[in-house]
Amino acid sequence: MRFWGVYKLMVGALAAAESLLGMLRSVNAPEASVWGALTVAASILLAIDGLERQFDEEHRWPFIALAGIVPICISILSGDWPSKLWMFALAMGFVEWMFQELKRTDGRTEIGTLACCAALAISLANTSIMIFRQYWDAPQFWPLGQIFRFMLPIALPWTLILILLAHSARELVARGTGNSAVALAAKAADD
Length: 191
Prior knowledge:
There is one protein chain. It is built from six helices and no strands. It has one domain (2-190). The protein is 83% helix and 0% strand. The protein is an all-alpha fold. It has helices spanning 2-25, 34-53, 61-78, 85-106, 111-137, 144-190. It starts with a helix and ends with a helix. The model is unreliable at 181-187 (pLDDT under 50). The longest helix is centred in the C-terminal third of the chain and has 47 residues, at 144-190.
């Protein structure tokens, strides 16, 4: 279990860093697209889920508070204080609380991971499509080495996210069928 916690923390931190750098490098204002905020939110929540796996899961309130505090810290460090920051921080805390409640009541510990990975995959798909359009619109011939340098930054995040997406989906399906089998067995025993 600790391996997947470290893996989630690493993928979340890398995705958050890349999302924030992408937002800083963009010529569009960060408010112009929902993808930046969605990617940062999913990355932070994924990293918090990984961090939570390293500690006792009984104490969930510090992780809920952390989900609300991280966007505020990012704003303080960047020197930018958007008017919607408080709503974003509250939404992050609420979503983390919702994931915690689903884990506690349903027992499906990977539901937040699956949602975050799906959001990251959708955002990464959007970015990958834009990059491939740029590649195919270029009129020059690209040598093989340049193609590998072009593909590595795309292949690495896809690989990391797809591995985590497959793991979380497999865990949810296994728990879902396990819970259904237990419920059916209990019902059969009652009859």
